[in-house]
Amino acid sequence: MPTSSSSDLRVPADQPETPDVSGAYPRLTDEQLMTLSRYGDRRSVPEGTVLYCEGDQDCGFFVVLEGKVAVVQETAAEPRLIAVHGPGRFLGDLALLTGQKVLVTAVAVTDVDVLEVRVDRLKTLVADDQALGDLILRAFILRRTLQATIGVGLRIIGSKYDRDARRLRDFASRNRIPHQWVDVEEDPQAEDLLRALGITVAVKPVVVWKGQRVLQNPSNTELADLIGLRAAPNRAAHDLVVVGAGPGGLAAAVYAASEGLSTIVLDAFATGGQAATSSQIENYLGFPAGITGGELADRAVVQARKFGAVFTIPGEATSLRQADGYHVVGLAEGDDLIAHAVLVATGVRYRRLDIPGTDRLEGSSVYYAATEFEAQLCRQDPVTVVGGGNSAGQAACFLARRSPVVNLVIRHDDLGRDMSHYLADRVEQSPRIKVWRNSEVCELIGDDELSEVLVRDLHTHKKQRIATSALFVLIGSAPHTGWLQGEIPLDAKGFVLTGPAADGQDGMFGTRRHGVFAVGDVRSGSVKRVASAVGEGSVVIRQVHEFLAAEGRR
């Protein structure tokens, strides 16, 4: 519902509309406006009316019918104009569909007529009209990307050498939270900014929200709560608790929620799993031009929420037990989630290099993902990637866009052995990528930051120094199953046993414990591919239904 407050930033009535950018600001057709009119109410609001403010939550979806509306960021160091929309354009971004707090303010530049659609009705529209829903969703995703590019949102202030500062930046980036990074080591105005906030430079990293609220070295959970990312745990019993929000967990959430199961999804860090760190997935069905892992995850989250799935992120599962006929998932925050059925989809993490200095350089020079966040840290310096699979190949190609030299180190001589053919060809053809075959990284050289790595030839044992500012380790797979030790049978490598291998009662994805299932990379014997995990996540819901029906719970 529009408020009567006014904005401090005055936008002239003749301010031109912001041009569309790749579909971020589309203009709706008369037919689309007619469709939307069935879901909302027309309202007239006077010039200067604020439709929603930065920090608001659960505000409406607005379509401009007459007049102009400006989108501004008022709590930046200097209030600034983000976009201007005229008739036929709509406001909002992903926050509307994910339940997060909005990062900008919308104010009427002139007297305007708007169509206001409640969020629940917007979700119904997205479900009812695929074409219009996809247009709105794509615009929302692109706007969120644009916001991240220009530094809209909260500010993280700290030192690039500080582990907690890197943690906060990584959490914000992996969860696609737009933010501005202020480095006290390089920004000459950082000290004045901290002083204005009443904070000394010696204090740990700080997060500034809405220009005034300051959190000193917050936990990931506190940061998530600040922007409305995390749903409060519900004590009522859920039909299904999905532990892990990678491709398998997200697919399961979509199918479970769409089929009427009360579903809650947890992840210790971010939605999307390892797939979300991929700069481009080109062999996923239905996306001939490819899609980033982050966008694929965002689309899946919105899709699952549309059907009623609830997300709690971060939400780290630390235990699994049985009580009074229910499964109980214990969380690191001290809460418990009660469920009729549990799906383990916690995925895997890359293995660490067993080299002295790795611990010291993790986060500053040693990384386990190659996203835009890590790429920005590398600037125009040479980098090194360790690994021979698709993730390593995608990382090398992505990093080669800005790094003059990308060294790819593999332990064998056949690049196509573990890498898709198209990707291996692309690596071979890149003038910026040098492949070190039959080799391994054996030493890290550098104090606060990496300056060189020592590479050893596994045949000749000859060693060679390589100048590098960052090391990307994308090798092996260690399952996230520590929380299941002693509760669910695991194989020798720690992967969850299912089906006949586990003497399970609930089909090929059932574990030995009745009502507990596993899919995706964490499952023993699974194919480690995004499409495979998605397939398993969708199929397992049939087995969940069968279990619930047999127990008389559906």
How would the blueprint of this fold be written?
Blueprint: H1 30-37, E1 41-45, E2 50-52, E3 61-66, E4 69-73, E5 80-85, H2 95-98, E6 105-108, E7 112-117, H3 119-128, H4 130-150, E8 154-158, H5 163-174, E9 179-183, H6 190-196, E10 206-209, E11 213-216, H7 220-227, E12 238-243, H8 247-258, E13 263-266, H9 293-306, E14 310-312, E15 317-323, E16 326-331, E17 336-344, E18 348-349, H10 358-361, E19 366-367, H11 372-378, E20 383-386, H12 390-399, E21 406-409, H13 421-429, E22 433-436, E23 439-445, E24 452-457, E25 463-467, E26 470-473, E27 478-479, E28 516-518, H14 530-550
Parallel strand pairs: 8-9, 12-13, 12-17, 13-14, 17-28, 19-26, 20-21, 20-26, 21-22
Antiparallel strand pairs: 1-7, 2-6, 3-7, 4-5, 4-6, 8-10, 10-11, 15-16, 16-17, 18-27, 23-24, 24-25
Helix pairs in contact: 3-4, 8-9, 8-14, 12-13
**Total strand count, please?**
28
Beta fraction: 15-25%
Span of the ends, CA to CA:
38 Å
Q: Structural class of the secondary elements?
A: alpha/beta
Give the domain tally: 4
Label the overall shape. globular
Mean of pLDDT: 91
Level of helix content?
Answer: 25-40%
Annotation field: number of helices: 14
- CATH fold node name of the largest domain: FAD/NAD(P)-binding domain
| Quaternary structure annotation | single chain
Major β-sheet profile: 7 strands, mixed
Contiguous uncertain segments of 5+ residues: none
Radius of gyration: 25 Å
Give the CATH H-level superfamily of the largest domain: FAD/NAD(P)-binding domain
Overall CATH architecture of the largest domain: 3-Layer(bba) Sandwich
CATH C-level class of the largest domain is: Alpha Beta
Keywords: Flavoprotein, Oxidoreductase
Domain Cyclic nucleotide-binding: 24-143
GO molecular function: thioredoxin-disulfide reductase (NADPH) activity
Protein name: Cyclic nucleotide-regulated FAD-dependent pyridine nucleotide-disulfide oxidoreductase
